[in-house]
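Wait, can you check?
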Amino acid sequence: MIPFMPMDESILSAVLNYFEKCAVYTSSLVGVIFLGRAVLLHLSFAGSAGFGALLKDTASYFVLILLFPKIFMLANEICAGLASKFSWNEPTTITGAISDLSKAAQMSHWSVLAVTKIGPYAVAYIGQAIATILLGILVAIGPIMILVNTMWNLNGGASTYFKALVVLLLWPFCWNVLGAIGQEVAAHQSVTSLMSVVFRLSVVVMQLLSPLFAYSLFSSFSTSGALQKARAIYQAVPAPVPKSTVSFKKEWKKPPRFNPGGWL
């Protein structure tokens, strides 16, 4: 089991460079979309609320474009720091029937020797390559996602996009935590050579599948349910009564006319 290294600084700078290039094209589209929406609002005789929403969406786009690289670099630095806190030593080889069979196979076939020696490194490097490529793609299309979710108000893919981004950033941390826990558990167990091999293979499979587990965990937190609850709380609060509708003046009544002969 080999530790997972986060994204390299040179690759990170190249990915953010692609983000800036894509942001140039999307920012040029913002002006076109802004004029188109403004014309439609004018033709539909929309009130000030419609133009206010247009200005709010435009401001949100530019704020997110400016903050996204800084937030991503900060999140990557935090995840890399957390992943580096977990390290382990290679476990000692346990002798037994499986280890003797493995040694015999390595001596007779060079391919078996190559797989046993290079296999753990290849698995870790494949995971790192997949994480780097997917993170690069997600960051590169970030301006497009921001444009779609602000200027076009298409919020369907925003949660999926940011969940995938967070899960890929946490992959090195999850990988190293599982490796450290696996080595700690294996060091305190009296296992046979067969059980040691099965245990290490199980940990490697869990390391490879850890992004799927993390994504399912994030998906269990429903944002739509939170929004519905917030909306219900907002509707339960009574609306303030305008001061103009409240009158503290008593109604003046004309006193009865006094008649010396008695009350009429």
Notes: The chain has one domain: 9-221. Residues 223-227, 239-250 have pLDDT under 50 and may be disordered. Residues 57 and 151 are 6 Å apart (CA to CA). Residues 48-84 form the longest helix (37 residues).
